[in-house]
Write a structure and sequence with these properties.
Layout: E1 3-7, E2 12-18, E3 31-33, E4 44-49, E5 70-74, E6 78-91, E7 118-126, E8 133-146
Parallel strand pairs: 2-3, 4-7
Antiparallel strand pairs: 1-2, 1-5, 3-4, 5-6, 6-8, 7-8
Length: about 150
């Protein structure tokens, strides 16, 4: 793990590791960082995945997040505060647009953003106990505090 992700509203505190492989990352209870996406606090999209059920289920209740909720990402260098502002209740697993540098659904183009920025994307499977679709929550960087 190289970071800790905290979602105060949900009581989530979980380690973040590089990669989104099931065996080496997600099934060990980590939140996985999509390798091709930005790092915390960098311009672009810091996109992560987590299990909704089993293996620590860090993203079990991300469907309950609302606009204005905070997500903190803590690294050795800094604490990054993101604020939730959008979501996509259901999209196809192949919808890679949701983790793009400027996150925007390719399945539902009205969902997402249209301009470069500093984004956070949380992804998990939906409905619960299924991997049929993906649930997506987006946020924007509000602040960064060096350690």
């Amino acid at each position: 793990a190289y970071a800790i992700l905290r979602i105060p509203r949900l009581g989530v505190v979980a380690p973040v590791a590089q990669g989104v492989g099931k065996r080496g990352v997600l099934d060990k209870g980590y939140i996985g960082h999509y390798p091709q996406t930005a790092q915390p606090g960098q311009a672009g999209n810091f996109a992560v995945a987590g299990h909704r059920n089993t293996h620590g289920e860090p993203f079990r209740y991300i469907n309950r997040l609302r606009s204005g909720d905070e997500v903190r990402v803590e690294t050795r260098e800094a604490v990054y505060l993101y604020v939730v502002d959008k979501g996509l209740a259901r999209t196809a697993p192949r919808d890679t647009g949701v983790i793009a540098n400027v996150p925007r659904s390719i399945v539902r183009p009205s969902a997402g953003y249209s301009e470069p920025g500093y984004y956070l994307t949380l992804t998990t499977c939906t409905p619960e106990y299924s991997s049929t679709y993906r649930l997506v929550v987006w946020g924007k960087l509000k602040s960064m505090r060096p350690r």
